[in-house]
């Protein structure tokens, strides 16, 4: 198996200080769609998600609930596992940083960095934000009402303690050279520019251990220290492939093809992580893609405002696949976006129920009624056919091209344009009238529409797996003929099709 047929993608591992919300569901959804697409394209895929369970933030959250941190993390981690199942994510593994395999990997990575002279013991004195689990420079701090804040809005506290340091400053030029040689390492471009200017403004060595709390992986040889939670957390991406055992079967998936992250955690993934890896002599991931943040009806989402969006409630109300579709369709991946019920309802009604749903329903009902429920054969070709058939045959490649840039919204727009074309084509060809005038042409028209629907359902599977399974069932496509390669082989004429039933429900507008 050649290396280009393997694909490794990851989500961030989620903090277990609180229950899952829309932001968590969103990052994982994008990764899930790409994982499914790659599998369908014949790749061996490894898709990883999990939970980030160490650090002061989690320790404090457990304390606030009067719980032992391990019992607390067991409970919250399970909520993230349940969310993954509820959202139909196809992750191949779910990692927890409190697992033994992970402690082993962190310890090994630490030792390797130490052996290579990348770690030294010193003192840390500076600003730390527990909420971000991040250190900030003095020039980044602002003050309001006597309280100091990080640029993220998180309160910071002055920390002074003995600490191990990673020689990050020494990696500045090599990082800049790396970004230069790999223009697609950080996407989108805006994030890449931010990272580069941050690195150019000068890196300082990074404090990578803490002594003021206990909930973490112990530093080998100096157990008064626990590892800085971001060093611990980032290592999860290699733990899951068997590190430090580079003969492990899964190790062939390294380096990762894409780490999906939110824009708030780009710095860790695009600066610290490649520096740690280069310093350890390990290959660096191919891409870090940072998506934007959702607001709720124009407002910043926050627990104190009480406008947190619960993905499970949303799915209960509107259905899983419509929600999966909407989240990736509404906002260009990489941009910030606003969640509004009105636009959700509009999109579901117009794009799913009207465009795709109606096209399927009209075509399949006509085949049921006029062709005795059997797939008609195409007759002589007509100059009008190319308009539809060319767009259909180009579709998989056009979707691939968009997804190779993580442009989920563009992939969906390209799919949508074929579904709109199908509707205008059926209106122009009028197969319902041809029944009386030209049976052979009617059969051809329905056959071509069936071909279009099969392609649409096939490429939409990663976005809406359950609904597209039903659609492919209705189209009479056997289970083994649902990947991209199978599209090259037409279904046999005369294939029996079950009676159709609607795929999408129209949603009534809610009172404002
Ligand atoms: N534990 C770290 C990641 C470690 S990865 C080695 C962490 N966890 S988190 O639970 O706080 O956040 C996880 C993801 O949720 C981030 O990618 C973040 O961007 C995303 N989101 C949190 N709120 C969000 C929105 N309102 N909108 C979109 N995504 C957001 O960070």
UniProtKB/TrEMBL annotation:
Q: Where in the cell is it found?
A: Cytoplasm
Q: Does the keyword ATP-binding apply?
A: yes
| Placement of sequence motif 'HIGH' region | 14-24
EC assignment: the record states: 6.1.1.10
Q: Where is this region: Disordered?
A: 490-512
Question: What residues does the Methionyl/Leucyl tRNA synthetase domain cover?
Answer: 7-364
Protein name, as recorded: Methionine--tRNA ligase
Q: Which organism is it from?
A: Teichococcus wenyumeiae
Gene that encodes the chain: metG
């Amino acid at each position: 198996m050649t290396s280009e047929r393997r694909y490794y993608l990851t989500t961030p591992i989620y903090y277990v200080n609180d229950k899952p919300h829309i932001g968590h569901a969103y990052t994982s959804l994008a990764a899930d769609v790409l994982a499914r697409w790659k599998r369908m394209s014949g790749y061996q895929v490894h898709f990883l998600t999990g939970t980030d369970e160490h650090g002061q933030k989690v320790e404090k959250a457990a304390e606030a609930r009067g719980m032992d941190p391990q019992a607390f993390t067991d409970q919250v981690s399970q909520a993230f596992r349940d969310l993954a199942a509820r959202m139909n994510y196809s992750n191949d593994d779910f990692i927890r940083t409190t697992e033994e395999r992970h402690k082993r990997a962190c310890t090994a990575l630490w030792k390797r960095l130490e052996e290579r002279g990348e770690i030294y013991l010193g003192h840390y004195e500076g600003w730390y934000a527990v909420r971000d689990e991040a250190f900030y420079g003095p020039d980044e701090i602002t003050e309001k009402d006597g309280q100091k804040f990080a640029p993220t809005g998180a309160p910071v506290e002055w920390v002074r303690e003995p600490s191990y340091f990673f020689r990050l400053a020494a990696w500045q030029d090599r990082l800049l050279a790396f970004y230069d040689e790999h223009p697609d390492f950080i996407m989108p471009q805006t994030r890449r520019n931010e990272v580069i200017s941050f690195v150019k403004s000068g890196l300082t060595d990074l404090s990578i251990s803490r002594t003021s709390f206990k909930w973490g992986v112990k530093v080998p040889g100096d157990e008064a220290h626990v590892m800085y939670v971001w060093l611990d957390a980032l290592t999860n991406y290699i733990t899951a492939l068997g590190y430090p055992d580079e003969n492990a079967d899964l190790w062939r998936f390294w380096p990762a093809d894409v780490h999906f992250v939110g824009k708030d955690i780009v710095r860790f993934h695009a600066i610290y992580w490649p520096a740690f890896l280069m310093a350890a002599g390990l290959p660096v991931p191919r891409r870090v893609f940072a998506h934007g943040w959702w607001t709720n009806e124009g407002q910043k989402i926050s627990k104190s405002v009480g406008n947190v969006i619960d993905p499970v409630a949303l799915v209960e109300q509107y259905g899983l696949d419509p929600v999966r579709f909407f989240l990736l369709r509404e906002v260009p991946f990489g941009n910030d976006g606003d969640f509004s019920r009105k636009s959700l309802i509009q999109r579901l009604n117009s794009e799913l129920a009207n465009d795709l749903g109606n096209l399927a329903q009209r075509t399949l009902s006509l085949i049921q009624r006029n062709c005795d429920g059997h797939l008609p054969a195409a007759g002589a070709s007509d100059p009008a056919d190319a308009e539809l058939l060319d767009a259909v045959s180009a579709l998989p490649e056009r979707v691939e091209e968009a997804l190779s840039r993580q442009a989920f919204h563009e992939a969906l727009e390209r799919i949508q344009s074929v579904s709109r074309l199908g509707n205008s084509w059926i209106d122009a060809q009028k197969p319902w009238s041809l029944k009386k005038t030209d049976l052979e042409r009617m059969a051809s028209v329905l056959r071509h529409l069936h071909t279009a629907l099969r392609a649409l359902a096939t490429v939409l599977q990663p976005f809406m797996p359950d609904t597209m399974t039903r659609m492919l069932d209705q189209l009479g496509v056997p289970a083994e003929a649902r990947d991209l390669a199978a599209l090259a082989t037409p279904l046999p004429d005369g294939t029996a099709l079950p009676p159709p039933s609607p795929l999408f429900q129209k949603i009534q507008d809610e009172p404002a």
